[in-house]
Amino acid sequence: RLNIKKITTGSKSLDDLLGGGIETKTITEFYGEYGSGKTQICHQLSVNVQLPPERGGLSGKAVYVDTEGTFRWERIEAMARGLGLEPDQVMDNIFYMRAYNSDHQVSIIDDLFTFVPKNDVRLVVVDSVTSHFRAEFPGREHLAERQQKLNAHLHQLMRLAEAFNIAVVVTNQVMARPDVFYGDPTTAVGGHVLAHTPGVRVQLRRSKGNKRIARVVDAPHLPEGEAVFVITEEGIRD
Ligand code: ADP
Ligand code: MG
After folding, report:
1. Full-model pTM
2. Which ligand is nearest to the CA of 43?
3. Which of 34, 40, 127 to mutate to test the pocket of ligand 1 (most atoms within 8 A of CB)?
4. Is pLDDT above 70 for 106?
5. Residue of minimum CA distance from atom 7 in ligand 1
6. In the predicted model, what is the mean pLDDT of the chain?
């Protein structure tokens, strides 16, 4: 655990739950239902990684791999303004990459092994890591093949995190009614994809209004409990 650095989420409560923020040299998975805040956290971290260390960042750039088309530059602008940063500069420091299928997603990550060290990248986001794999290998009959491909992809991301001492953040959407998706454990609530990969798993769920609740799962080195945060126009806050 040498040289591990942390990126603030924007919420002190969530940072405390994570032991100070999102760590480098590891994969952090945010999983939860639609609207639980996964994509907003990914946007916020892509801005926050650019902050200087004294403000909780790594003075670095971000790669945002978008598989669902839910990335919005306007959110980056609003979050940059919320931190008193120059929006144009913050946007210049985010490398947006759209992944059109699972093979494309894997090849984008392959290319990052040369791209990351050349471009001062300290954070790679994959939002979401699972959607293409689920769409291309549907149902129980393809579960083993999908899981094998997904595990290889996660392994590739883990090597990337370790090789360049960067943070990797992935998201995974799970269903409200796991019983409806019988036979597919990765879509069930609690069915995080990192089961066989080292990393930090964070479950998100909706609360009242703009409140969200985060819980760290299966992390013996982190305190038990939950963190409450809010999603505002300016981004993630306490
Ligand atoms: P997920 O990726 O988990 O499906 P999102 O991260 O996209 O969920 O979260 C969507 C939620 O974020 C919205 O329901 C809304 O509550 C909040 N949100 C999105 N944009 C804004 C905004 N501009 N101002 C305030 N809240 C916002
Ligand atoms: Mg999303």
Report:
1. 0.95
2. 1
3. 40
4. yes
5. 39
6. 92
Tell me which amino acid residue 163 is. Answer: A
Reported ipTM: the value is 0.99
The pLDDT of 208-229, averaged and rounded, is 90
What's the residue count for the chain? Answer: 238
